[in-house]
Amino acid sequence: PIEAHEEAEVVAKVGGEVRQLFVEEGDTVKAGQIMARLDGDRLRLEVAQNEANLRKLERDYNRQLELSEKGLVAKGTAENAKFDLDALRAAYDSARLELSYTEIRAPIDGVVSARHIKLGNTITQNTPTFHVTNPDPLVAYVHIPEKEFRKLAPQQTAEVVVDALGGERFTGTISRISPTVDPKTGTFRARVEVQDPTRRLKPGMFARVNIVYERREDALQLPRTAIVDADGTQSVFIVAGGKAEQRHVQTGLANNGWIEVVDGLQGDEKV
Asked: Which ranges constitute the DSSP H helices of the chain?
């Protein structure tokens, strides 16, 4: 399956009524962009209350500090007022933070792949609101037999074939290779990144991945169906003097239904 490089389920950090929706499914968003706004009347009142208390305590603290410097009150009185001021300032900052959570923002760049809320809904904390997917790049995780481990390396080219798009082929690149082999399956995992500026590929589509690990120029090739496997040997039938003659061959690389013949044929025979 093709997967998104990044995706995030956006949940509400505070509860409230959905007052505004700014994006819909399919819209592109940037990290930090406001996607929806909740009712924040109660939280705004809490911020205003904390701010008023904070200003009053700041005034009292400054008065206590002034009296303490003149020796009219004990130093401990001013210190206690300072502790109370710090605690109230933290409460004020916490109330402002809670109020900011009424603006539901995109955590990553991407595309809105799902919207779970509607205008007027009253939601609670941790309610899923949106799903954001970053399709650039798309990735496919390929599990490869351990005997092929030495043949692969990062930055190797891969061909990604998607049947849902009529067998269209896309170019991919191996970005990472797992350093360990799964002992249960005898395979290791390679991550293939696929660039698709046209956005035709969608996360969830299935793909067949062909990884090119070796190239040979001017290779002598035959259709795989022309090769006869019998008793552990490979052979082909050629036309010689008007008769069919069996010829043993040694094969090499294979690709897209064709197989390389490295020994046994000159290249001018009729097979």
From this structure: 41-69, 75-100
